[in-house]
Design goal:
The complex is a heterodimer. By secondary structure, chain A is an all-alpha fold. Chain A is built from five helices and no strands. Chain B contains six helices and no strands. Helix content of chain B is about 65%, strand content about 0%. Chain B is globular. By secondary structure, chain B is mainly α. The chains are: A mainly alpha, B mainly alpha. Chains A and B meet through helix 1 and helix 3 of A and helix 1 and helix 4 of B.
């Protein structure tokens, strides 16, 4: 229970830090995620297809970094480059916050 | 213990594939023989993929290597320090084959984080499969508040 609370606090802190002064818009994030990401990753980011990583509950700043790296080509993936390029900076903050807010299978389990 | 874990992983895996095939059936709207063929083929494919996956990694052997992972990935709120600051991703509960692919991408240089590249370079294919089996077993999703 204690670790769950800690977890929640860290996750909430992550959301705040990752999105900076401008709060992310979860509704806009859900909309863009549905349009761009959901076909592979699921609307809640918990993809059923094991080819695509689970994003639900993942740290939003990590998700945003991954998207920027796909855009720049620092992470080289033809499929993700196409989708990441369809997102602007605001979209990235919004979809990252959306997936981070979703049901979480991922954990810090040792 | 290992057998039961493998069985569960197989069940989940096969279940996912089955449900995917099932929905494909509906969406393509093919009926009769073709549909049956697709269905049976899908089940066989799922069984084969499940068996291959079950052989691929031994979660119990991952303990020889997890010491390299937990210093960053098992600490809530931990961040990278170099070359860019961001939260270290959670890997437990991730799809096993994505974990393997990520490790291979670091080893090959396709993904560039320096510490991950060094760690992945020290891992054999078997080590990667074992780690994926260990971290990839997923509990049910927990709703975030």
């Amino acid at each position: 229970m204690r670790s769950f609370i800690l977890h929640a606090v860290f996750a909430a802190t992550g959301v705040v830090l990752a999105t900076g002064v401008q709060a992310a818009n979860l509704e806009a994030g859900k909309k863009r995620a549905t349009e761009v990401c959901a076909a592979c990753h699921g609307v809640d980011g918990n993809s059923q297809n094991p080819d695509y990583p689970r994003l639900g509950g993942q740290h939003p700043d990590y998700l945003a970094k991954a998207l920027r790296d796909y855009q720049s080509g620092a992470r080289n993936n033809a499929i993700m480059k196409t989708f990441a390029t369809a997102l602007n900076e605001v979209d990235i903050a919004d979809v990252s916050a959306w997936f981070a807010s979703q049901p979480q299978v991922l954990s810090h389990r040792r | 213990m290992r057998l039961s874990q493998t069985g569960r992983a197989f069940g989940t895996f096969a279940g996912r594939y089955n449900s995917k095939v099932f929905s494909t059936n509906f969406s393509t709207g093919t009926g009769g023989e073709l549909s049956k063929f697709v269905w049976v083929g899908g089940v066989l494919l799922a069984a084969f993929a499940g068996a291959a996956f079950a052989q691929a990694g031994d979660a119990a052997k991952a303990h020889e290597k997890t010491a390299m992972c937990l210093g960053c990935h098992a600490i809530p709120g931990w961040r990278t320090a170099y070359p860019e600051v961001y939260s270290v991703p959670m890997i437990a509960g991730q799809h096993p084959q994505y974990i393997v692919r990520a490790l291979q991408a670091y080893k090959s240089g396709e993904r560039s984080h320096p510490s991950m590249r060094a760690i992945a370079a020290s891992l054999s294919d078997e080590d990667m499969a074992n780690l994926a089996a260990y971290y990839g077993s997923a509990p049910p999703a927990v709703a975030k508040k």
